[in-house]
Amino acid sequence: SRQPFSNNAVSDMFWPPSLYNYTTSSYWCWVQFGVEQKRDWARVNWGGTRLDSLTNVVFSNGLLDPWYTGGVLKDVGPSVVSVIIESGAHHIDLFFSNKLDPPDVKLAREVERTHITRWVREKAQREQRR
Hints:
The structure is a single chain. This protein is an alpha+beta fold. The protein contains 3 helices and 2 strands; from the N terminus they run H-H-E-E-H. The longest helix is centred in the C-terminal third of the chain and has 27 residues, at 103-129. The protein is extended and about 60 Å long. Keywords: Glycoprotein, Hydrolase, Protease, Signal. This is Prolylcarboxypeptidase.
């Protein structure tokens, strides 16, 4: 099957985006698995780009991950932030830390920790005032 977005088809295992054909891909899914692709499923079910009602979310995206193009790549607001990891791939910031982690992965974890710590502290302060 072909993905509707990919990295570059040279240094990864994905086809170039120019080769993606929704009709062909849908047919392949039906023949191979007996399932019909739902082109707009993620957008419809997860709200697409309507992120203005979210709070306290960190979207992290590793630029070595071919899925990053479908991610949130810019801050939406003060409590909905995007962290870009140039040398990272899928979930690298969520793995256990390692002394060989690149500097941008370490920085991403620190940014995430800073935001989450602040959100927890703010919630605790609101609860104390009740």
